[in-house]
Write a structure and sequence with these properties.
Layout (H helix, E strand, L loop, with lengths): L1 E9 L5 H11 L3 E5 L28 H13 L24 E7 L7 H4 L4 E6 L2 H9 L11 H20 L3 E5 L4 H22 L2
Helix pairs in contact: 1-6
């Protein structure tokens, strides 16, 4: 039995969750973990001098718990509630992959935490230009709600900070243009994962 751990990271409102959910339906033996499930309760999240809750930083998340969850899945993917039914778009490419289990991890801060970087087989990063990201963000309802100036004062600067860190320190990240259609993004990532599955399968022969 082999495992494939896929990171789907990037900008807020870039389409990570939608893409991850579609991939989960299309790929065999596929499960998903969302970084949003590891946010600390609001009282534990720091507030800066402007009154902004600092959600877009690593300290706002239980990152150790997230790593533990992924490692537990890697040890025993068959007991993690993964559906082993036929994927929606079964094709010849997926034959003989019954012994490979896939985990898609989606979130906005996946690649700036060293213990996580040991786990990825493949890493994707969705990007958006400022105006489009701000427009999409304004259509979403958050708990707690974004306060006036929050996007420009905290969300976007933190995205740029962590993205710059990535570009300086990380390699083997596939950058994806979040302005492209969901269909185009899905086709690109799906094809890439199929190639990874083939490599794993061939390596086990």
């Amino acid at each position: 039995m082999k495992v494939l751990v896929i990171g789907l990271g990037g900008v807020t409102n870039g389409g990570k969750t939608t893409l991850a959910e579609k991939l989960k339906k299309m790929l065999p033996n596929c499960d998903m973990i969302s970084q949003d499930d590891f946010f600390k309760p609001e009282p534990e999240v720091e507030t800066d001098e402007r009154g902004f809750k600092l959600y877009d930083v690593l300290d706002a998340l239980y990152m150790d718990e997230m790593v533990k969850s992924i490692r537990n899945w890697m040890k025993s993917p068959t007991s993690s509630g993964v559906l082993t039914e036929e994927p929606q778009n079964t094709c010849d490419n997926l034959k003989d992959t019954e012994d490979v289990y896939i985990l898609i991890v989606e979130g906005f801060l996946l690649y700036n935490y060293e213990p996580l970087n040991e786990l990825w087989n493949r890493r994707y990063f969705l990007t958006l230009p400022y105006e489009e990201c701000k427009r999409r963000r304004s259509t979403r309802v958050y708990q707690p709600a974004d306060t006036p100036g929050y996007f420009d004062g905290h969300v976007w600067p933190m995205y740029l900070k962590y993205k710059n860190e990535l570009e300086e320190n990380a390699s083997n990240i596939v950058y994806l243009d979040g302005t492209k259609s969901q269909e185009e993004l899905l086709s690109c990532v799906y094809s890439d994962i199929i190639q990874e599955l083939k490599k794993l399968r061939e390596g086990s022969k």
